[in-house]
Amino acid sequence: MSAALLVGYSSSSSSSGSEGEDGSGPGPRPEPGAEPEEGGSRGCRHPPSPPPLPRLPIPDSVLNMFPDPEDGIVDDIEKHGGRIRTFPHERGIWATHVWVPYEAKEDFFDLLDLLMTQARRVLPRLVKMEEFHVSLSQSVVLRYHWITPFVQSLKSRMAFFHRFLFTANQVKVYTNQEKTRTFIGLEVTAGHAQFLDLVSEVDRVMEEFDLATFYKEPSFHISLAWCVGDVQSELKEQAIQGLQLS
């Protein structure tokens, strides 16, 4: 048999899919001396790709599930009793406030009802608080990924404190820092030093996260009622003297 008619194949099973030496693609090698077909190609010819299918429109109900993050959020103050935010809403941040909860008993609510009756004679729009506490920090904002380390740091610093007794029996009027709300509260008259020790540790945590610390000379208190606006002078002049506890 003439050597010109022999075609060599590799023993590798993958050789049928490999490119030829000239990079023209898979296919049998031409016989020595043979001329390629005029205008032809040594590689395999593939049929043309079909045109892309048109995309279906996304329903509005689905688009509304994922609003544009750049869209601003408008607060409806009527849904929050007329209260105004102390800082603008921003996605990914969480309002944070550290406090000691106060578990009110029946006699506390009896006293609260008495105080509210007298205070509303001067300011009928006063709203009774639903939960009671003593604040240990200002309101600050945390990034979501700060929450876990922030809580862990607070827990580690508070772990060595013991329970203590305190007395709150002095009626006093307060406003928030922005003067957008007024509060009637019971000021702490015994236990002030222990609360200062707690605030000292809370402030250290705030400093770790570059957040605002508490007031330099805090008046610890339990808020009893609130209203929108700065009516501190009006309440002090007309109601506080009659509300003082004996």
Please give a structural write-up.
Helices cover 25% and strands 17% of the residues. The protein has 246 residues and is of the alpha+beta class. The strands form 3 sheets. It has a 4-stranded antiparallel β-sheet with strand order 3-8-7-6. Strand 6 (167-175) and strand 7 form a beta hairpin. The longest helix has 17 residues, at 106-122. Residues 1-25 have low confidence and may be disordered. Residues 1-61 are annotated as: Disordered.
Keywords for this structure?
246 residues, Cyclic Phosphodiesterase, Chain: A, four-stranded antiparallel beta sheet, elongated, disordered N terminus
Give the count of helical stretches.
6
Distance between the amino and carboxyl termini = 127 Å
Percentage of residues assigned to helices: 10-25%
Q: Largest sheet, order of strands side by side?
A: 3-8-7-6
CATH class of the domain at 91-244: Alpha Beta
What's the main sheet like? 4 strands, antiparallel
- String of helices and strands: HEEHEEEHEEHEHH
Q: Overall mean pLDDT score?
A: 79
GO molecular function, one term: lyase activity
Protein name: U6 snRNA phosphodiesterase
Region (Disordered): 1-61
Active site: 133, 221
